[in-house]
């Protein structure tokens, strides 16, 4: 059974950065305003995430790494909502099957922190013997430590790139979550080095964080665009079919016509989860390469909020490509609005 679970876990956790993405989402879900990431050997030796979130209650520790353990289902209706991107309580379980996982956590109410270690979904020492959580010193919040990722799945391990490549993927994930959560302070560093490779302050805003992470050249060219089913409708262009069913809204920060780069940078968050959509990426890229300035690629940050029910729950979360209801319609509406704004910019500069 452990072997099956190990294979399943490898399907969910592909590499250090995919483990990190899950752990970051958990910290953010826990209301953290500070998230510190420490990495050794590209995350293969060590991946540690320390947050100041709500912590985990001691009584929940024994089942924490069991599959389908989630505190995020409050009602039956929520179940459907949560299946959108979450792994329905599969992330920590999966990680425990392919690494040495330990947790130190303290809620505000607890007088001390608790330390728990897991193997194959249960509280256990690395040799497999059961071991109860132990009291220890610690601050409010949770520190998750993942060591020796894929030590027992050589195929996964051999599919990884070198540690510097894996580390840059980790930095990329932290950078994107930092942009999407400007109120949260993030750091990311290699274990043993004193200066972090990435730091953001808390209480910043999205534009400032983009400047910090991607540089002033991009930041000063950014244009803000808000799109919703009804936006632009005052232009009398009432096309009945062109309005998506449920309510949705998109916040876009994209570079203007004067910005030139070889490669597109695309940050897509749907309902606050970092996802990929080749369709959206292509559609947006086409605007720039074809209409605005030939051969140039943009920077686009796009935060889309849609009805969680409209996200395709049949697509397994490991397929990073996301699909949702009215995808084509929503994409078209966003692109049309962006084109309009860009063209307006373009002409105002020419004349
Ligand atoms: P899910 O996020 O889908 O619920 P996970 O396996 O990622 O599943 O996490 C399981 C549960 O562990 C969460 O529902 C949450 O209650 C708890 N948890 C995990 N990480 C943290 C954290 N950093 N702070 C507080 N609670 C956490
Ligand atoms: Mg999770």
Short description:
Helix content is 33%, strand content 21%. With 351 residues, it is of the alpha+beta class. Adenosine-5'-diphosphate (ADP) binds next to helix 2 and helix 4.
Key words describing this protein structure:
Heat Shock Protein 90, 351 residues, five-stranded mixed sheet, binds magnesium ion, binds adenosine-5'-diphosphate, 33% helix, DNA mismatch repair protein S5 domain-containing protein, 10 helices
Q: How many domains make up the coordinates?
A: 2
- In the CATH hierarchy, the third-tier topology of the largest domain is known as Heat Shock Protein 90
Question: What is the radius of gyration computed over CA atoms, rounded to a whole number of angstroms?
Answer: 22 Å
Which stretches are low in confidence, meaning pLDDT under 50 for 5 or more residues running?
82-87, 235-244
Series of secondary-structure elements, N-terminal to C-terminal: HHEEHHEEEEEHHEEHHEEEEHEH
How much helix, percentage-wise, in residues?
25-40%
Ligands bound here?
adenosine-5'-diphosphate, magnesium ion
**What is the structural class?**
alpha+beta
Strand content: 15-25%
Tally of helical runs = 10
Mean pLDDT: 87
Q: How far is the N terminus from the C terminus?
A: 70 Å
Shape call: elongated
Q: Characterize the main sheet.
A: 9 strands, mixed
CATH superfamily placement of the largest domain: Histidine kinase-like ATPase, C-terminal domain
Organism: Phlebiopsis gigantea (strain 11061_1 CR5-6) (White-rot fungus)
Family: Belongs to the DNA mismatch repair MutL/HexB family.
Protein name: DNA mismatch repair protein S5 domain-containing protein
Subcellular location: Nucleus
């Amino acid at each position: 059974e452990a072997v099956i679970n190990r294979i399943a876990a490898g399907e969910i956790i592909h590499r250090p950065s995919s483990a990190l993405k899950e752990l970051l989402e958990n910290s953010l879900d826990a209301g953290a305003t500070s998230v510190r990431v420490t990495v050794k050997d590209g995350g293969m030796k060590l991946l540690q995430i320390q947050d100041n979130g709500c912590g985990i209650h001691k009584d929940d520790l024994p089942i924490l790494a069991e599959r389908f353990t989630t505190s995020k289902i409050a009602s039956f209706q929520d179940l459907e909502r949560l299946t959108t991107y979450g792994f329905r309580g599969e992330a920590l379980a999966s990680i425990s099957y392919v690494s040495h996982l330990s947790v130190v956590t303290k809620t505000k109410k607890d007088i001390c922190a608790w330390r728990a270690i897991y193997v194959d979904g249960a509280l256990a020492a690395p040799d497999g013997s059961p071991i109860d959580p132990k009291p220890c010193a610690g601050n409010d919040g949770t520190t998750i430590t993942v060591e020796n990722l894929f030590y027992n799945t050589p195929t996964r391990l051999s599919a990884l790139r070198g540690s510097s490549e894996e580390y840059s993927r980790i930095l990329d994930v932290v950078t994107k979550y930092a942009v999407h959560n400007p109120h949260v302070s993030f750091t990311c560093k290699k274990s043993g080095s004193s200066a972090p490779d990435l730091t953001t302050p808390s209480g910043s805003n999205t534009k400032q964080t983009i400047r910090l992470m991607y540089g002033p050249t991009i930041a000063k060219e950014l244009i803000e665009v808000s799109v919703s089913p009804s936006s632009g409708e005052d232009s009398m262009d009432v096309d009945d079919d062109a309005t998506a069913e449920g309510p949705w809204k998109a916040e876009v920060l994209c570079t203007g016509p004067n910005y030139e780069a070889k490669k597109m940078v695309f940050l897509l968050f749907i309902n606050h989860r970092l996802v990929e959509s080749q369709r959206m990426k292509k559609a947006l890229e086409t605007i720039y390469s074809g209409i605005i300035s030939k051969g140039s690629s943009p920077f686009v940050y796009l935060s889309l909020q849609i009805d969680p029910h409209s996200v395709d729950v049949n697509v397994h979360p490991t397929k990073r490509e996301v699909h949702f209801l009215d995808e084509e319609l929503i994409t078209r509406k966003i692109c049309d609005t962006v084109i309009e704004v860009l063209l307006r910019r373009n002409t105002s500069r020419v004349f």
